[in-house]
């Protein structure tokens, strides 16, 4: 049976408590440390797997949103450019009677 993340953490805590209380004799110490290393590797791997799965979910959600936005966008034609404003010519009377240089 595969060890779950929760089970691995619980076992690590048990090993840690035993090491802290000196209830592990020297002959058992090496085996406990090796088992702890295995459990830590297992936990890291499970965390990486979970993180990758969550990233994929968010990527799919982002893609779904982008697709929905593209589907909902009305088909538009290129905007018609506005005509350039006409420049008013000034007469000498409008400029105070003098000529502008």
Question: What would you say this structure looks like, in words?
Answer:
- By secondary structure, the chain is mainly alpha-helical.
- It has a domain at 5-72.
- It has two helices and no strands.
- The chain has helices at residues 5-20, 26-72.
- α1 (5-20) runs antiparallel to α2 (26-72).
- The chain is rod-shaped and about 95 Å long.
- The model has no long low-confidence stretch (mean pLDDT 80).
Characteristic key phrases:
single chain, 101 residues, mainly alpha, 2 helices
Please summarize what this structure is.
The protein is mainly alpha-helical. It has two helices and no strands. The termini are far apart.
Beta percentage is under 5%
* Helix/strand class: mainly alpha
End-to-end gap: 95 Å
Overall average pLDDT: 80
The whole-angstrom Rg is: 37 Å
Order of helices and strands: HH
Spatial shape: rod-shaped
Question: Main beta sheet, described?
Answer: none
- Summed up, the helix count is 2
Report low-confidence residues grouped into runs of 5 or more.
none
Helix content: 55-70%
Quick one: how many beta strands?
0
